[in-house]
Structures are given as C-alpha cells and as structure tokens.
Design a protein that fits this description.
33% helix
Amino acid sequence: FPSHDKAERTVYFDFDRSNLTVEGMNKLDELLVKIGEAHEVIRGNIVGYADEMGKDDYNRILSSKRAEAVKGYLIARGFKNIGVVEVRGLGESASTTSCAPTLERQERIDCLRQDRRVEVELDVME
C-alpha cells in the first residue's frame, strides 16, 4: 500500500519514547482495515525518524526502536512474512521541521513533533 496517503501510513511518537501511543495503534489499525484481509507481506519499508534534539547516535537508536515497535505491532496483528520488510532508523538525518532557535524547551519539543515518526510502506499479497 505505498499508494496510500503518506499521512495515513505515518505514526507519531512522544518525545524521547519508542513505545506506540494509543493514537499510533489506532492509526495502524485504520491502515490495516484499508489493507483488508491481505496479511501476507511481499516487501516493504518501516522507517523510523527522530527530531533534532539529542545526540546523533542516540537519535539513530531511538528511531530504530520506533520502527521495530511498529513492526512488532504488525506481527502481533497477524502479518506474515514480515521478515522481508526493511526496518531502519534514520535518526534526525531526515528532519523536516524547522523551529525557531529561541523557543523554550517544551515549545521546541511540541514544534518538532512531526519529526518523531515512523513511515510504513508495505506491498501485500491480494
């Protein structure tokens, strides 16, 4: 379902967390409904990201943990052959948000929310 809208297949995470939120689980459940009964994965990508706060190495690890959390959720929901999916974390290297450097810490955390995400692309057997 790479053709689905990017917003439909993007899950967001809380600051400095890699566990799925209720909102994230609901988003994945909605995506699974759109896929329907096809739970056999042919290929895909689950890519995690982090915001610019924190050290590069830490953010790479955090973004990988986020991607693995999404993969684990899909497995728990009955997806088969998920081993063909490439799971990786890009850390802050693909940051898309720009925030004013003068923001207070919490305002900056809120501003960078869009960068704390996992994007899912799966090709499934019909």
